[in-house]
Amino acid sequence: MTPLPQAADRAAVPAQGGALPAGGAAALPAAAAPPVLMQVRGLAVAAGNAVVQSGLEFDIRAGEVLVMMGPSGCGKSTLLRHLVGLERPVAGQVLLAGHDLHQGNADELAALRRRFGVMFQAGALWSSMSLGENVMFPMRLFTRLGAAERRRRARFKLALVGLDGGFDLMPAQLSGGMRKRAALARALALDPELLFLDEPGSGLDPLNAARLDELVLNLRHHLGTAVVLVTHENASIFAVADRALYLDPHAHTMTALGPPRELLAHGPAEVRAFLQRGVVV
Length: 281
What we know:
Distance between the termini: 11 Å
Order of helices and strands: HEEEHEEHEHHHEHEHEEHH
Shape: globular
Low-confidence stretches: 1-30
């Protein structure tokens, strides 16, 4: 269930048919605001030679689930790749703890990026490695943990995502839903404070997609991990999002940011139309 919106989130929602005020959404009062983990300032992102989104201004808060939504082709996955440092922006900054993820030496940037985990749309598991080996791989690369401790932590992460006993399974032995869970366990390998998920429900039947949504909420609740989730599935948006960011494919910028139910009631016309597609709320 989506938490009740904060007063400032309601203020941040555009009036019916309107757009975001200059500078993006208003901030919560300092006393009530959770810590900001990541800041996006004046960001413009491109796919190839085409700028798909520009003027992006928003924060990612500790412990929240922020959904990036919009029609296919609006630039959601492209934006995610820029947020995790895989692609350089055309303009603007992505700041983690005040440090620009696209400026600095390679060692400094690599250390910053180890503070978050990423689950890619296709899972990207190493097919020649067991699930346990997949989850332990980041630990082998980036920690000094001994083999026994790596195995213990990998088993724990697999159990967290409902794959207890799956340590020795190979990716080819898994169903689509199990592969998604295994990829999520690997994204959690280094205990990230921020987790990026690219279309986690893509290719799953509605039941398994709903189970994955529940898993995301449980991880946020029990681990306190902030989650940024890319999706165009309305069921997931209403199930998991504290706030939702709408990327407009025609204006090529963000046009709404706020709790999904507030956007459904009071957001711009195109956002309300997007959220009304076949969903009963």
